[in-house]
Q: What sequence folds into this?
């Protein structure tokens, strides 16, 4: 791997470098009773998840130059004893178990990376710990395969997520250390470091931030991303910009819409996937336009919905409906991440096969639907035009996300609008 310059100025530019994470033992280090502690509704089966995730990595390895594995990047930096100690101290302090520092320092780099993902058991050697319902002193990271949430590459630098739930702050600490110390990623600084926040009201996660163009962002105001954080992003990201427009979408604070990319993703320069009831329908979410210049918010206007706000910037979009035209199918398929597509080149996307009505809608919109395994096994090739790669994902989607959630682009080609 050569040094990966950070360059991410759109949602749709050809993908060159991306970070993913193959699920590991952390996914099974929970029970039905403890699943909610790590933000799961149910327990997942690792073997099934691995087979599905292999399709995602297989496709990405065909279309991108560098597919980087989160755990491998972490192992690389943990070879340095100072980096190792600093990171272990930060993780142990976060969870209030500084007594574990020496034990964790005894692991070699690869084993420590595995340990940080799968969690460290709580020693039941005091009454307080014995009666504690928690199994872990340092919780496992079953959400880590959703690499998008804890770090976002925007323009030429990362944003380290300011996670809404403490259990996910470990992911942000690990990724911060990678971008600070990995020889192929370091040296570019951060727009914002969410691990250093001074307020619980300042939260932002990657599923809520969409880079449309170099002068236009769309951000979800959700249960995971706060208004205060959006104000901070407006100030930070507009530095060096004579004009930066941010369209904010106010999402319902419910499980189905934890992030904006669960109801809206860019597929091409003129095409988006959307959950119609909240984007184009009668109950569409309110939108706010923030006009920003050189670190300042000039003014804010309110609009009845995202489509109307985007027209201000010349975006007359074709809206493909998650679940097609059936309200019943729309509701079911949005729940199973039917709107959460990842675009790896203009008009070329990957999403879940089980959302059949959504794939039918894409077919009608001119996307050639291709089975991921056929592509990986070279039975099919990507066409020059629009294509929707369909991968298995029934198990992965039960974790609460889709293909955009599982991919964190570091470098894309620029796009002509």
A:
């Amino acid at each position: 791997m050569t040094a990966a310059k950070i360059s991410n100025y759109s949602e749709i530019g050809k993908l060159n470098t991306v970070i993913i994470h193959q699920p590991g033992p952390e996914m099974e280090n929970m029970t039905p009773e403890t699943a909610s502690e790590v933000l799961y509704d149910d327990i997942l089966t690792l073997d099934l998840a691995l087979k599905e995730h292999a399709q995602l990595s297989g496709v990405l390895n065909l279309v991108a130059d560098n597919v980087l594995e989160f755990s491998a990047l972490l192992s690389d930096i943990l070879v340095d004893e100072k980096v190792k100690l600093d990171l272990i101290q930060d993780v142990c302090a976060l969870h209030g178990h500084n007594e574990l520092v020496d034990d964790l320092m005894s692991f070699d780099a690869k084993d420590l990376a595995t340990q940080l993902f799968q969690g460290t058991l709580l020693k039941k050697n005091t009454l307080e710990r014995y009666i504690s319902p928690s199994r872990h002193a340092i919780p496992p990271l079953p959400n880590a395969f959703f690499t998008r949430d804890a770090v976002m590459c925007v323009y030429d630098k990362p944003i380290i997520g300011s996670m809404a739930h403490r259990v996910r702050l470990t992911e942000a600490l690990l990724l911060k250390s990678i971008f600070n110390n990995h020889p192929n990623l370091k040296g570019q600084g951060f727009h914002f470091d969410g691990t250093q926040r001074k307020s619980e009201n300042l939260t932002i996660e990657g599923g809520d931030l969409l880079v449309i163009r170099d002068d236009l962002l769309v951000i979800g105001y959700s249960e995971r991303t706060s208004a205060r954080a959006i104000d901070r992003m407006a100030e930070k990201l507009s530095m060096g910009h004579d004009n930066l427009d941010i369209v904010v979408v106010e999402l319902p604070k419910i499980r189905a819409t934890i992030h904006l990319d669960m109801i809206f993703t860019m597929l091409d320069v003129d095409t988006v996937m959307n959950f119609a009831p909240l984007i184009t329908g009668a109950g569409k979410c309110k939108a706010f336009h923030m006009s920003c210049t050189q670190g300042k918010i000039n003014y804010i206007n309110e609009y009845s919905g995202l489509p109307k706000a985007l027209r201000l910037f010349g975006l007359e979009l074709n809206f493909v409906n998650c679940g097609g035209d059936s309200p019943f199918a729309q509701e079911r398929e949005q729940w199973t991440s039917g709107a959460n597509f990842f675009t790896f080149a203009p008009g070329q996307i990957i999403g879940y096969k089980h959302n059949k009505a959504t794939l039918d809608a894409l077919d009608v919109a001119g996307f050639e639907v291709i089975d991921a395994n056929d592509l990986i096994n070279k039975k099919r090739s990507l066409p020059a035009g629009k294509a929707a790669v369909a991968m298995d994902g029934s198990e992965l989607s039960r974790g609460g996300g889709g293909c955009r959630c599982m991919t964190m682009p570091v470098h894309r080609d620029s796009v002509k609008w």
